[in-house]
Amino acid sequence: MDVSEKFLRATNDNSILSKGSAANCGYTADQWTKLFCRKSRRRSPLINRGYWIRARVIKGIVSRFLACPTLLPKQIVSLGAGYDTLYFQLFSRNLNDNNVKFYEIDFPELLHIKSQVISSNELDTKNLTFIPGDLRYFDGIKTKLVNKGLDHKAPTLVFSEVVLTYLDEVYSNKIIKWTTEFFESSVFINYEQILPSDGFGRFMTRHFDGLNSPLKTIDLYPDVRSLVGRYESLGWPKVVVTDLIGFLGSIEGSERFRVSMLEPFDEFEGWHLKCKHYAVSVAAKGSCQQFIEDICGCWKSRVPIGWNVMELPWQRIVCKPLLRRFAHSSCDLGDDSNPFCKCGSHLVHLTTGGFGESPLSGPGHRMPSTVVLHCGQCQTTQELAVSVDLSRMHCSLVPIGSRACVVLGGRKSPSKPCKLNEIILIQIDGVLGETDLEVNSSVISCHGDAPCPRWRHTATNLDIAGTRHVLIIGGRTTDRVLDDLLVLNVETFTWNRIKASGLHAVHSHSATLVNNTLAICGGIDSQGDPTNCLAFIDLSSLDELVATVTYVSVDLPPLYSHTAHSLDTELLLVGGVCLDLVAVPAVVTVGLVSPYPIRCFKLNISNELVLINGHSSTIQRQTTNTVVLSVIGGGCNCFSFGTLINPGLINLECELSTD
After folding, report:
1. What average pLDDT does the structure give for the chain?
2. What is the rounded CA–CA span in Å between residue 309 and residue 32?
3. pLDDT of 209 strictly over 80
4. CA 371 to CA 101: how far, in whole Å?
5. DSSP class of residue 206?
6. What is the C-alpha to C-alpha distance for residues 275 and 272, in angstroms, rounded to an integer?
7. In the list 100, 205, 341, 357, which could disulfide-bond 375, CB 3.0-4.6 Å?
8. Phi, psi angle pair for 520, to nearest 5°
9. CA atoms in the 13 A half-sphere facing the CB of 430
10. Can you spell out the DSSP letters for 125-149?
11. In 479-597, where does DSSP find H-type helix?
């Protein structure tokens, strides 16, 4: 066994464990995978979902091919099959179907082990033929296939499930070209990774590099457009390519709901980014062309929006690792009367919660019960322990004075949301960087109509009739997405519900105060889909517990897990998960007057690993023509590749609109 075969076999071993986990947790109907697992391991809900959609892609297309009455007899060829059990899933009830031949190709030693498992469990393989060989030396495999009865006249489906990407282009192109030249009618399916140049993509490719299984063609064919061109250049007359976001939209709502109820889940950023970075290519010729038109017609079009995306100057700010976190919350504290930092700055940022690393807890944890104070002027950072439990994610943090703020909601886990009838008051005394700095914290029991526990909501500080309040919009709880509007009087700590008919259920959105109006933008809706909604809530009648909601039409890509700031004429949306643009936006600006013009800015990240989602942000400074935004933390769990967390602070310099 050479070195390449050794590492590629390791990818098969990892894959079969993950497929087994997905089956054991109810995502897929596969009773055979466990026979090939040397051990059982429960993967995270994010990984289980990833293998569910992978199975839906491959099994769904192959099943439709088998069911097509006009394509007879049929042949199926699996490239690099490994321990995959698709044959047994498909033929467990149709083992007497003599109109189908199924071929599996992989390394000889691996197929030998698979044969032993099949024999010891007395599985029926009447229609199955093993072809041992190395795909890099495909001439010998072609001969073996023909000798085993492969018929060039029979309609044939050939598929690769994250296999060809491990081969040099010369080898993979040879296989793709042979499939269209050898058969009169054929379908070729390839499931593989794309988009290697953004933060998630770089993290993904480095993961495979670290496993000594590099993705050898991803830079040559990095996106949907280039994959279409690849298959067309190799002779395929009909080609359809989509990323998994496009495929996800074709799955019936009942199945998506079933999957959403299998396990508590709250890793939307990692889930959507994984789906954006995997693609399925389907190419066809002959009588199979109509077949792929039938099965691919319901896929969502995934042609990227053709915007002029401008580059944005940016800078990493070196600071202590206290701000390496995501799913946290931050707010600005201070006023013009007294310096808050030893450097003389009157403004500091307070951060709490989230997931990341800290000197008190180490890496890879929900952050401990501490607050972190940071001065953007001198970069002084200090962590202070508090006496109440602040280890939570996706909470909101709202200032209610120059040196006081409240923590609302959040979650311990997706099944353990934090109550909103109890909020946490944090008060800071002293000067950052001096020895007298201390924090006081307490739990406040609220009165009135207490809202249900929630996280991924928004909280906005505003005055109603001269009294300070906090306005809560949406969010999610254990079993649903919320569509309510609530207000907390922070002088009496009393909750009231606001009547706001027409407000959509949403979470992971932004809410920004613009004069006496609240601008709600983006988020994830009750179906689990990112949205591009822009709504304005008139707050002039809040003292009567009534608000008017108006949704406007805007040419904005669906966006969530972003932050937002308002200027005189523009709304600044910072970062977020955006699925309809190839370039990941660092800042999207939205004009506040119809027709709500859009500008989009990206970062040239070179070889950096940057994810601007799950972050917090603040306006560091502003001039007549520019605004400098500080992005604090950010990141997410990146499928099975690990957890990517930004190193601390990033400053973005954005030009303001002159219109």
Report:
1. 91
2. 48
3. yes
4. 63
5. H
6. 5
7. 341
8. -105, 130
9. 12
10. -TTEEEEE--TTSHHHHHHHHHHTT
11. none
Question: CA angle 318-320-321, nearest 5°?
Answer: 105
What type of residue is 116?
Q
Question: In one letter, which amino acid is 628?
Answer: V
Give CA angle at 474 (573, 528), nearest 5°: 80
- Residue 329, SS3? strand
Q: What is the pLDDT of residues 478-506, one digit of tens each?
A: 999 999 999 999 999 999 999 998 999 99
Instruction: Report residue 362 CA to chain centroid gap.
Output: 25
The reported pLDDT for the residue numbered 360 is 60
Spatial distance between the Cα atoms of 593 and 518, rounded to a whole number of angstroms: 14
- C-alpha span between 523 and 512 (Å, rounded): 13
Tell me the two tokens of residue 282.
């389907």
Burial class for 505, CB neighbours closer than 10 Å (0-12, 13-18, 19+) = middle
Q: 642: exposed, middle or buried (C-beta count within 10 Å: 0-12, 13-18, 19+)?
A: middle
pLDDT of residue 96: 55
Q: Are 457 and 482 in contact (CB under 8 A)?
A: yes
Q: What amino acid occupies position 370? A: T
* Confidence (pLDDT) at 358: 66
Q: For 490, left (φ over 0), alpha (ψ -120 to 50), or beta?
A: alpha
Please measure the distance between the N-terminal and C-terminal CA atoms of the chain and give it in whole angstroms: 66
What's the residue count for the chain? 659
8-state DSSP, 507 = B
C-beta separation of 401 from 344 below 8 A? no
The number of CA neighbours under 13 Å toward the Cβ of 385 is 4
